[in-house]
Amino acid sequence: MTSSEVETHDEAIRKAGVLIEALSWIRRFRGQHVVIKFGGSALEQSDAVRSFLTDVVFMETVGMRPVLLHGGGKAISAAMTAAGIAPHFVQGRRYTDEKTLDIVAEVLARDICRSLVRLIRKSGGRAVELSYLTQNALVGERIELPGENGESLDLGAVGKVVSIDRSLIEDTCRSGCIPVIPSVVLDADGGKLNVNADTAAAAVAGMMQSEKLVFLSDVPGIFRDKNDPSTLISHLTADQCRQLIAEGVIDSGMVPKVDAAIEALQAGVKKVHIVDGRMPHSVLLEIYSNTGVGTEIVL
Prior knowledge:
Blueprint: H1 3-29, E1 33-38, H2 46-61, E2 65-70, H3 73-82, E3 89-90, E4 93-94, H4 98-122, E5 127-129, E6 138-146, E7 152-164, H5 166-174, E8 178-182, E9 184-186, E10 192-195, H6 197-208, E11 212-217, E12 222-223, E13 232-233, E14 235-237, H7 238-247, H8 254-266, E15 271-276, H9 282-287, E16 295-298
Parallel strand pairs: 1-2, 1-11, 2-8, 5-8, 7-10, 11-15, 14-16
Antiparallel strand pairs: 3-4, 6-7, 9-10, 12-13, 15-16
């Protein structure tokens, strides 16, 4: 046997080992729902999008039931700039007036959602858009923020998820399709509301009692020292997360994501994962390997 043949043989054995390692996880999660929140900088990178969607198709193929919920803040900001509308934020949340809402809804439901459905189909999977344009799966209500002096701060047409059409989502999964859901909801009167994608994903995962909730972020997970990649924390409890927030280790944009994770766990989700959406096949490595590549959070 030549050296090249030996290398090919060894590579084949290595690949078989990877499949065997994944087998126990595939059997364990077969038939279970996983809600995946996708957005951020990964959504702007075509290679990352294709890699991620290949992972999602793989998950559905081996029996898991992925539910994809997405945002699109950067695309919304770009569309607003093109329309000559200056963004306005209240305590870090985008104020959504009527013109802004039209752009948000158009970008999320018509542009990004339909693009993701097309790409999943190109990857060999089946996907269905669940939005106010087709079949609506999310119902919400308006929210306000408390001000420094106890007053209520108006955010415009901004809301939270208060109920879901669980049967619609589950029936879509059972049919072998991947539900793709934008973070735009309808209120009780049929009006559209802009919803934070992290909190929407957490609400959907909790109401579905999902096995897992996965946040695709622009960082590999939670670090003890954000400037030192070797300090990535692979496993945390909700109480440990609260302590790290109090210490300032978890700060800025990661805080609302972790808060949403804890809410999902309290609602019945078994485990939450934060992984780097820019890393090829990060979702598969996190779920179907013994070591994982991000941070997992449990109660």
